[in-house]
Amino acid sequence: MTKLLTALLLMLGLAAPVHAQEAPAPKPDTAAAQTEGDDAAEEEDDDNAEPEAAEEAVHDAKGKFDYGFSGVLARDNRTVIAPLMLGSGKPVATAEYTLKSGGYYRMDITADGTGEMALSGGDFFRAIWINEIVINDIEIRPMGVHSLEFDDAGTATISFVAMVPGRYTLSIPGSSGDTQRAVFNIQ
Q: Do the record's keywords include Signal (predicted)?
């Protein structure tokens, strides 16, 4: 009998916190709250002010931007920018790129195979956060990149978030012409 009584008391003791969490909070007596409220009004500042939605059980953590369920890296938030072309004597980019800090971008870098071509720009790669580089359906998620080199014709797709505002270049190493580089302005 004592085992049964002990089990019953244990079940009631374990169930009490559950009921306490589910029960609504009691409302204070209006007269007592009024007298306490007069004293507390002098000490209160805006930190204790709560919106009326605080009574609901859902806390909405919307920030400045509502990126949706997947966040900033959602496919809907990605902007595809003009590709970079690597070829002997051909311009790398058709114009300067203007990117928004915090924007999610995708860019193709294509080599035509006319020679071994590289694209270097450590400053640019340090000013962005690289989500992935895709080469022949192989996804690479690097910690950092300094350059990309193409031995043959092919395409590398890079998806990234622009981070640090400034003016950056990606250029073919050893070249000095203005057409042998791509300029990125992150605002």
A: yes
Q: Any bridge partners for residue 78, and if so which?
A: 104
Task: Check the CA dihedral 65-68-70-75 and report its sign.
Answer: negative
Q: Where are the beta strands (DSSP E) in the chain?
A: 78-80, 84-86, 97-99, 104-111, 117-120, 128-135, 138-140, 147-150, 154-162, 166-171, 181-186
- Domains of the chain: residue spans and CATH: 77-186 (2.60.40.420)
User: pLDDT tens per residue, the chain (187 residues)?
Assistant: 666 666 666 666 655 555 555 555 555 555 554 555 555 445 555 555 555 544 555 555 444 556 666 667 777 778 899 999 999 889 999 999 999 998 899 999 999 999 899 999 999 999 999 999 999 999 999 998 999 999 999 999 999 999 999 999 999 998 888 899 999 999 9
**pTM for the full predicted model:** 0.62
> Can you list the alpha helix ranges (DSSP code H) found in the chain?
2-22, 30-43, 122-126
